[in-house]
Amino acid sequence: MKKQADELRAEYDLTQLKGCVRGKYAARAKQGTNIILLAPDVAEIFHDDASVNEALRTLIRMNSRKSQRLAA
Predict the structure, then answer these.
(1) How would you class 30 by CB atoms within 10 Å of its CB: exposed for 0-12, middle for 13-18, buried for 19 or more?
(2) Biggest alpha carbon–alpha carbon distance for the chain
(3) What would the pLDDT profile of 15-65 be if each residue is shown by its tens digit?
(4) Predicted structure pTM score
(5) Is the residue at 2 inside a domain?
(6) Considering the domain boundaries, does residue 59 fall inside one?
(7) Are 38 and 46 in contact (CB under 8 A)?
(8) What is the distance, to the nearest Å, from the Cα of residue 48 to the centroid of all Cα atoms in its chain?
(9) Phi-psi bin for 23: left (phi > 0), alpha (psi -120 to 50), beta?
(10) What range defines the domain where residue 58 resides?
(11) Which of 34, 32, 33, 51 is nearest to 42 (CA)?
């Protein structure tokens, strides 16, 4: 396997970087994020999170009404 050349510029002095921690903010980022990947065919229809949420809320309302009718 061929070793890649180091592309870091000479003016970047890595010895000055102190206290770097890998993944320092990973837990904080996960708290406010709930990422769900859509299948490609679904993503063609729903282009943004608002349209997905609207469709899911509609299904929730429909299911709720159906459950209420069955309970009556």
Answers:
(1) exposed
(2) 76
(3) 787 887 888 888 887 787 778 899 999 999 998 989 999 999 999 999 988
(4) 0.49
(5) no
(6) yes
(7) yes
(8) 12
(9) left
(10) 37-72
(11) 51
In one-letter notation, the amino acid at residue 59 is: L
**Which residue from 33, 64, 58, 63 is spatially nearest to 46, judged by alpha carbons?**
58
Structure tokens at 61: 């309302």
pLDDT of residue 27: 84
CA gap 35, 53 in Å, rounded: 13
Which value, in Å, is the radius of gyration of the alpha carbons in the chain? 24
Residue with tokens 């729903």: 46
Domains: count for the chain? 1
- 63 located within any domain: yes
* Residue 72 resides in a domain: yes
